[in-house]
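Shipment paperwork, digital attachment
Item: protein structure file
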Amino acid sequence: MITKTAFRWRFDVNTFRLLGRDLITDRVTAVFELVKNAYDANATDVSVDFFDVNTNPQNSKIIISDNGIGMSYADIDNKWMVVGTNNKRITTHSPAPFNRRMVGEKGIGRFAVDKLGSRLTIRTKQKGDSEWLNVSINWEDYESKSTDDQLTLFTDIDNPFFFELGNPDEHGTSLEISSVNEIWTKPDIDRLYKELTKVVSPFYPIYPPFNINVSSNEFDEFQNKIVKSEALKYASHSAELVFDPGKRRQEVLRFNTKTGKIYHEEVEYKSFGPVKMKLYYFDNDAKKRYNRQFKDADARIDGIKIYRDGVVTTPFAEFEVNRDKQRDILGIDKRLWRDIFNRIGTREVIGVVEITKDENPAIIDATNRQDFVDTKQYRDLKEFIIDQLDVFSQVKIWERMRRQITTTSALEKASKDVTFFRDALETISKENPSLQPVLKEIKEQAIEVGRSINKGITEQKKERQEFTRKENIYISLMSLQDYAVRISHSVRTSLGKIKRMAEFFKRNFPNAEHDHLFKEYAVMIFDEMNTLNKVIDFMLSYAGSNVDFEDFSVKKLIEDLLYVAYRQTFIDEKIHTVVEIADDFILNANKKFFEDIIQNLVSNSIKALNGQENKMIKCSGYIEDNNFIFFFSDNGPGISVEDKAKIFDIYYTTTAQEGGAGLGLFIVKTRIEALQGTIEVAEPEYKPTGATFKITFPFKKD
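Attachment content:
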């Protein structure tokens, strides 16, 4: 028999504040956590109702109610305010017949109520009970007794409750949050609605279903509005990945550049375990159809979500009205600055990644529910997701090229058709002089149409060239931005060294006891100044060079450099050179940057070959798919395994004794990436020693 009339929980108010306000950082996240609790409680229907949250803060309320299994008196007394209760860890699935995988594992969802408002009324009942339990909690009572010097325990505060009669067949829980902390505008509720569409994966078979309803007494759009998403039907492309548990093989996406089709391959399970994945890409036409339907593109298409056992784990990882506040945990939009013209952003793709607690145990929710714990497996999963997304980047590039070809062909055909039509009119006119007055106006119109079409062809070529020019400038500037950070740090490091040695001179010179240090420091200062000059020259080369790309023959440029410009140097150094470029390639790039690449590679090789016999430098190249593969080799001492990982770092050098400053390969890598290429250390051509670099550039054939 229950004799008391109030609950008392032994709990530190400051800890409660930490959990309720600091860990759950977003009020939409707070509502989301409470809805997920309803899912764990076997609810089939949950309602989120807003009352006067926009216009009348004093009377405002948010009510979250469900028809789940409800809570008993003992549940409220022993578990409601207990952090991290273990019942969901011991019982991993909800009761039959639902058998849902529990998603609220840490026991902090209930503390989300403090993020929403200062008063809470719980109304709950389990099936078979004859009474509803009603509990009132006022957070202000606790905070008024909590000071910085003294902790107030929940034991000190009475939380009154009472029972009311109910139907034994009824069950569920209602959380009425009043004195709402913040005003909710229509865009706020709309954002919540959009996020709630992602609670349950649209591809995961939930039975019985989990239905969500959002209502507001202030906004007509939200009158018992059922949460559902129809966005996917507007996508232009889609792909699905599954796995084979018997063979432990994972599907991955690949793109055929010849057919323009996506296909699948199978690989071994990754470190994070098997995943299912669905991706929906929206090209420009699809986005237009989508925007016509939803009227609010910025608030919609918003990237990839990860679901565990059918329920979203990080619901707010991508979308935020203020883009500066976007969490972007997968780094999808952060990648755009490297190549905004070709890569896919969160406003072009909707994706679902399905993981499970059993198959992917190393993918662990962060406590604040906004990300995952940083483990190798999670990093591998992010890389895997990005790799699949890059397949759609290839689709994007391929389709843009096809559109250009199709448009050009259509314009050229139209031009030929108009010319044919005009010639036919001329023939008819000559054969039928009586028709000349009638045909004259038609001929003039045909001539005007032909001019317009030819003008369109010319303008299209100009627009394409302008797009390429802007793209190349952007890529070049982004490459500079990436490396400027490291250069700035390195310059500060050099200046710090110079300053310390100069201060030593200032304090101690002259002093015969330190003469050896004065000499040593003078040489070191001189070397540091030379290095700084090279860094400054490199940076100024960006400002001083023309960043426009141009067409040039790779074979001719390399032959001019190695056989002409460096001829005397190679004779003096007794270096034999070989250039083997099978065909003549036309590369569309910044010619000065390409010259810098070759010159720095040659300079490095000359230093590496110092003291060697039978000195060799070799350049070779060939076409592979849409790339020009270029190898640069020498037969010097080569690159050690330890140096391979650091060889392109700024200031890292293995030729200090020959005057190396550690800038040559850094500049090479910078220039190559500015040209959208890649460089790597390859197997040495002149084994057992020697160094070979493999460089890959996109190209167009002459």
